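How a chain folds remains the central question behind the approach discussed here. This step matters because it turns folding into a mapping between discrete strings. The sequence in question and its structure tokens are set out directly beneath this paragraph.
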Amino acid sequence: MSIQTVARLALTGAALLSFSLPTWSADAPAKAGTVAAAKKTTAKKAAPAEPALADLTPEQLDSAQRVLVGKNACEFNQNVDVAAVGAKPGYFQVAFKGKIYTMAPEPTTTGAVRLEDKKNGLVWIQIGSKSMLMNSKIGQRMVDDCVHPAQKA
């Protein structure tokens, strides 16, 4: 390696060090606190607001009256909890595996109760003897054989 190559490498290394190392000044702690505060501010961005729930049709409100709320014991020792949304009559929150889905009733021709979360593609179907949670996007049951205490009777 020639002396010129070594000198070029030394200058390049010195230039890189001068750009990457912070300079010390009396107000360095104040600047560090400001940077940390700025990082915290950007990290605490507000979650996007949920869109407002649309008004339901009379048929949907009629279907909502037949929804069984409460805990449903399902296959493989799983549970699905169905609760009414207090602020918006006719809507329900369906909780499964730590996630909560807001669902609206959809009228059916069979008499079954059908709740849908169109955004996530989930459907809660309640018939006389059992209920099930399905993912309509992939056409698969997420959990089956869910039984509410009222369905046992």
Residues 84 and 92 are 4 Å apart (CA to CA). The chain is about 30% helix and 30% strand. The first strand starts at residue 70 and ends at 74.
